[in-house]
Predict the 3D structure of the following.
Amino acid sequence: MINEALKCICQSYPQLEGTKILKLLADESNRPILSTVLELVLTGKLSIKEAELAYYHPLGIPLTDYRTLQEIRRRMRRLNAMKAQYLSSHAGEQSPYDAELKALIKYCKECTKPSGAIKNSSDELRKAYRRQYAAIRRLFAKAEADGHQEAVAIVKRNLRLGYSSMIFRPENSS
């Protein structure tokens, strides 16, 4: 069933990048493949096995640390207190502390997620996954618009996307 669905989608859109990704995953079904490996295979003339041996997969690097954030927040509290004292004794809406406060707030927003957790630098694995996810999403949208909803549903059921992606094929299917 999955074979027919893959064949239908891949033959209908052979030039799309999402098709090329699905073909690579189908050739190595039931085996997870890192997004960076897929990227190397798509852009170069390497096989999957060569690409797995040729590339080191580092993780993202934290943009800051908790101690630095703690010190920044302490400094921001002190600046806010100094700003309040300054504004109470001087008429106006601006203080000499506004520029530093603004810079510290900007730094915190750039280095942390909305939950307060520290962001990592965008690593290659994440970038590759996002590109591949978008390519497959575009392929599925085009196929569904052209009337291949059933094939897309079958492939989606058997596709595991992530930093390591794979197409799952049941043992009784070839």
